[in-house]
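Q: My collaborator sent me two sequences in one message, no labels, and asked for predicted structures for both. Can we handle them in order? The first one she listed is below.
A: Yes, handling them in the order given. First sequence, followed by its structure tokens:
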Amino acid sequence: MALTTAATSNMLINGELVEPAAGGQRRLVNPATGAAADTVPEGSAEDVRRAVTAAKAAFEDGRWSRIGTSGRAAVLDKLADLIEEHLDELAELESRNVGKSIKLAHDSDLPFAVDCLRFFAGAARHLEGKSAGEYTPGYTSVVRREPIGVVGQLAPWNYPLMMAIWKIGPALAAGNTVVLKPAPETPLTTMALGRLALEAGLPAGVLNIVTGGDEVGVALVEHPDVRLISLTGASETGKAVMRAAAASLKRVHMELGGKAPFLVFNDADLEAAAQGAVCGGFVNTGQDCTAATRIYVQKGSYDAFLKRYLELVGQIRVGDPSSNQTDMGPLVSGAQLQRVETLVQTARNIGTFHTGGRRANISGLENGFFYEPTVITDVPEDAHVVTEEIFGPAVVVLPFADEDDAIAKANAVRYGLAGSVWTSNVQRALRVSGALQFGTVWVNDHLPLAAEMPHGGFKQSGFGKDMSQYAVEDYTIVKHVMLDTTGDQRKGWHYTIFGDA
């Protein structure tokens, strides 16, 4: 089955590939060329209503939650097989739609998405509550973990398919039904995922995919039958979603912005740190919440590190994302390019630009949204390029004096998603990783994740976890079931409410 046919460009509602109720359409732009590209459906609040109605019916009649954990695991495994089978096509769609390098999509994002889905298939069979026990004489208590119900999910544009899997995987493993909204700029692989879900045997209404912009997002967040909203996006968006969700007391699950510190101590392997900093800072054209955008180097190693780092940054190949020789493609959109330009420009008169700081001119792709890898030094700690998430290929490199200074500077932002420590001293690694207020801390590397381990933020980077068994638990609700073991018609405590002892 080819994933590039017209049917792939339909929304998925109640087990059918459908056009939007109002017939709306959105024309996507190819980030590498700046030209109009694919046309996709533009959903509306009516499409959300249809999708939530289908998801609620599917949840209430038990066609998914009651088929058993082995049944759910089998379908998720089949879906993983199909993604793997179509990996080449999906990688091409992802690269074209997002502008990311084909090697990142094909050899990193999609294989990891498959691995995560396989993990969640297994996790479906390992949901646990507290062991049964007699905590009050005459009664046995059991704690159950049950699905929450209809889950609304808002996926981001930087890793469309992988983040969609991070969301639907734990939600479906736990037995929920889902209405998923991809980012309006990058829906192509998510719509293809809907078609593969049907082929995998996912029952009608269990997974619904509605494409569109703010109208779809607002309708999903505000719908009274949606019991949990999961968002991956900017921190400001998270605040808006929380305010809207409060009206119906929905649960919220959020992975938000980041401003990752990258701490290099004097005893670190400087070559390893420099190599890691290039990958950590410029991954996905810097459009990554965990990107290492604040590099702090101890003063004794600062000059040597900066010299080698700039040599490596100068070797980054910016260009056509469809080429395997390209390291960094364009930003996702003209709007994102303008945002990056504006934020970087705030440092123009207060810092030193060693490289970059302007649009990249790529021969044959002059209208693409390319930006040069940018390295800035000598800016104050309160500069916007230090405190705000740029979400583009711009990194600041600054010195620190000692361990306490490094920790203080690393923690002095409102974000708390990820960071890394570079040192050959295991005691320092333990001390600093414990002191950093970030949900993921790497030691002597930056970026790798594992499906078995949780990923999520502190502070304004959100709450709740992606991946791991913790993510599955986030999509469950705990129920206490208490069973009488005596068979007595009148219990010994009844007199306290009615009658005599």
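Q: And the one she listed second?
A: Here it is, processed independently of the first:
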Amino acid sequence: MEQARALRILSRIMSWDDERAAQEFAWLQVMAKVKYDGYRDFLAGMPFLESLAAWLQQFDPADRETAYSLLRKRLIYVGPAEMQRLVELFYPATMERYLIGRLAVGRAIPRFRVLSEEKFRRELDSLRRRTLIMGLSDGARIDILRHSTVGILSNEQFVVQTQVDSFKWADLLSDLKKAVDANATFEVIYLVDDFMGSGSSFLRWDAEKKKWTGKLTKFLTSLGENQGVVSANWKLCVHHYLASEQARDDVPKVVEKAKDDLQLASMPEITFGMVIPRRSNIDPATDAAIVELTKRYYNPSIQTVHTDKGGEKHLGLGYAGCALPLVLDHNTPNNSLAILWAECEARVVAGVQQPEMRPLFRRRQRHS
């Protein structure tokens, strides 16, 4: 009954005739059940259809069709099943391939011999154990990684965060020495996370402090304070299950620029499970009506000192102007259009009345 009532309300809000309403109801009911109702931050009693009705009412009637088309035609929603698949693919599709390639290059042999000859398989087992996986945030899904690599990797090879104290580093090294030999150190360290939109939170130049900052620098600081953890020729690898094409193209260039300052002996191996192509972004040239919504239904009070670090103060097209129509089931990235996730009351800012912003997929702010 509640769903039927929500659909009737939507029909009135959108002024749909019976034929259009029947088409849209069929689509909405399927998508709500299969995907959108599973969004973690919907309030109790306010699943997708109710949230959609509330969201659409903030727009003038003439703008509601444009707002609805953003959901209907452009939204990219990554649910638990899709993300779990990306996590499960990380080891066989990325990590194992890298380890095999590293061993093959080091021994100057074809890759196939690593798995076809016993002595090289034993070396691969040793290299696999001397690999550490660390989460850059709680989105790294370390629990799923552990479960998907049972019998392949040890629980002692997973760390839920990159900033660990000297006691944790000592424990990790002690477990490694027991498993391999008394002289063992880590040869490969993987930093993993769920999503990279612009890459600025991973690594950026802080002009005010005149230094590099971000998750990478914090990890390197923690590692640098604990000598003897890694081998002389250790390799840093960075993997994100999902990324924008902007991040895929820009982040390696930024890391290359910072490599000497960060005292990295070699360029890290940077990989992505899946890349969202730029053609999926909201383009001001071809999506003028949607871009106009991001300007007119915008309240500057959602801006903070943290969002300013992306280089774009106006968040209409998202943090760093990424213009992504993206929602992840556990949270909406702030790189997505603000009208999808922003929430604030109407208020006067700099003497100008600014509108209320209602989210379709409420974002849990990391800085709040």
